TrEMBL record:
Protein name: Uncharacterized protein
PANTHER family noted in UniProt: ALPHA/BETA-HYDROLASES SUPERFAMILY PROTEIN, ALPHA_BETA-HYDROLASES SUPERFAMILY PROTEIN
Organism this protein belongs to: Triticum urartu
Domain of life: Eukaryota
Cross-referenced SUPFAM superfamilies: alpha/beta-Hydrolases (SSF53474)
InterPro entries the record matches: AB_hydrolase_fold, Sec_MonoDiacylglyc_Lipase
């Protein structure tokens, strides 16, 4: 495993990466199978959502992070930005950048400090929210 994948695995060991059909984003930056130690590498545990005979199927991929039978099986000419906008039948969109949030559990609060480094950048600012799972909220109650 390469440095990013190893680091992520160390601090977020139970993370699952869900990919959708022909989504182009998991292929950026590109992965070069003939240069595996010199290319970007995803962290393990991918679940690939794709269509099989008209039915949505979820495939649990191998632990490599680059399973050739999952999203890596999609030929480059068939990659799609539109498949990045819908996951599990839910359209992923925001009206504007002010509604975008990154939500993390308290167990990953320490790596949050690294989000202010020059490694991760955004064109527009994004709020980072640390979720406190000990506080339960009742969505049916009004304040």
């Amino acid at each position: 495993m390469l440095p990013f994948a190893s680091y992520f695995e160390q601090y977020v060991p139970s993370a699952i990466r869900v990919t959708h059909e022909h989504d182009i984003v998991p292929h950026l930056p590109p992965y070069f199978f003939f240069l595996p130690h010199l290319t970007y590498h995803h962290f393990p545990r991918e679940v690939w959502e794709h269509d099989v005979d008209g039915n949505t199927t979820f495939r649990v991929c191998d632990g490599s992070g680059e399973d050739p039978d999952c999203c890596r099986s999609v030929f480059a000419l068939f990659l799609s930005a539109s498949d990045h906008l819908t996951y599990m039948g839910v359209e992923i969109a925001a009206d504007d950048w002010s509604t975008c949030r990154i939500v993390m559990a308290q167990s990953v609060e320490r790596p949050q400090l690294y989000l202010k480094s020059n490694v991760i950048t955004w064109k527009n600012p994004v709020d980072i929210i640390i979720a406190d799972h000990s506080v339960q909220t009742d969505p049916s109650s009004s304040s």
